[in-house]
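Course exercise 7: structure representation. Students receive a sequence record and must write out the corresponding structure in token form. The form below is the worked example handed out in class, using mRNA m(6)A methyltransferase (208 residues). Read each field label carefully; the graders check that inputs and outputs are placed in the correct fields and that the protein name is recorded exactly as given.

STUDENT ID: A-19
EXERCISE PROTEIN: mRNA m(6)A methyltransferase
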Amino acid sequence: MMIVANEIDYEEFTAPEWCIPIKANVIDFEWDKLASECQFDAILMDPPWQLATHAPTRGVAIAYQQLPDQFIEELPIEKLQKNGFIFIWVINNKYVKAFELMKKWGYTFVDDITWVKQTVNRRMAKGHGYYLQHAKETCLVGKKGEDPVGCKHSISSDVIYSVRRGQSQKPEELYEMIEELIPNGKYLEIFGRKNNLRDYWVTIGNEL
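STUDENT ANSWER:
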């Protein structure tokens, strides 16, 4: 299946054969119906956090719609998972809110993953920041209930070194890390884009 890409570096994008893309607005999506069909072992989300009013991007255009905290907080994540892990990408001024969301949804913070961004020449890729130049992003890891069946601990490192690609595009290594932690699991990504589609993952977003 050929899909025209919007913000990907190449003109055409071939969706993985075994991915499950669901194009929908996450705000009014029928989450109860999905929860009744499947309970997920891993949930990954990269919320379109609303940036601070002092515009830390310093003139860099943001190519996606930002979402106020209350809309993210209202997502019924607790219905989608009884046992398993949640992975939440977070920006600097949203750490406290992300921890609050984890607690509200029934998770305990257990770890974090750091992505050190690199250029194609394997140099550190520095970006704009308010006080310091930013060269990393952080993904918080929460756990709910028991370990999923087949869960394997201490397989992957908590640091990813990989090349920075398109705006808001996260590294493939995180998906591999999740799949190593929970082999043959049931995986869900929320706020996904076309470049996030992956075999055996359910991906939900309004930009698919």
